[in-house]
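[job 4471] stage=fold_predict status=RUNNING
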Amino acid sequence: MRIDQLPSSENVEDRRGSGGGFRVPGGRSGLGIGTIILLGLLGWWLGIDPGLLIGGADILTGGKPQQQTQNGPGKTDAGAPDPTKEMVTRVLGSTEAVWSNVFQQSGERYEPPKLVMFDGITRSGCGVAQSAMGPFYCPLDQKVYLDTSFFRDLERKFGACDAGSKACQFSQAYVITHEVGHHVQNLLGILPRVQQMQQGMDKAEANQLQVRVELQADCLAGVWANHAEKEWKFMDEGDVEAAMQTASAIGDDRLQRKTQGYVIPDAFTHGSSQQRTRWLMSGLKSGKLDGCDTFGAQRI
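[job 4471] inference complete, writing structure tokens
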């Protein structure tokens, strides 16, 4: 992937090394039952273990703080250029150009999200953001939250791409553009409608609907890649294969089998490896929004 071909964004907020933008108080105040219920519902909606949100909030209210790095935002130890931030900035910039054009074709205006880079823990409009959550999109403040240590996890923990390979950058771009896909869904009114529908469902039914949300975001990441490649010719040999490898590595079935030794389909919230790779490829091949109708598809 040749990132120098892509435009830059001005919507990246770098909080790394800033201690999350807040000071952890010394005393322990505990959480109210209302806060715990709210965080539990929010975690379920975002596809995040509610315990992580609740545990993170406990840190904010006086629990044990996580260690933060001391470097200035976006700086390396020696103050050298930051290739990770450069990649994030350019990928986000390309999504702004692509989705602005797509929305304009329908007579709509695209409002780009902010992307927050952090390390360890930070605040978000959806509560606390922790590295253990992985990247996520918060519809309440329309921001993408990314602890860039997740990129290392893709290589080392998930085996999502060949460590050190240049193609891993495209895998990272897929992760970012998947989250931007959720922002596109939010602007189109899809996320609010799904959330309303889920309120009247049991957990298994709500999970099935959430899977369709996530698979559509995978497909939208593919739509971005289709348009971006036509515009900037930025992809290298092996990039698509690396993205497919990543989508497969973070499928619910593979992650469940790795962590607990067995698979529970009713507990899926993001889709199986096969589903994720299929929908990513569908968007990549078609480059069209109507090719990403996971809600109307009989087979996902």
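[job 4471] summary: The chain has two domains: 3-17+72-292, 25-64.
[job 4471] exit 0
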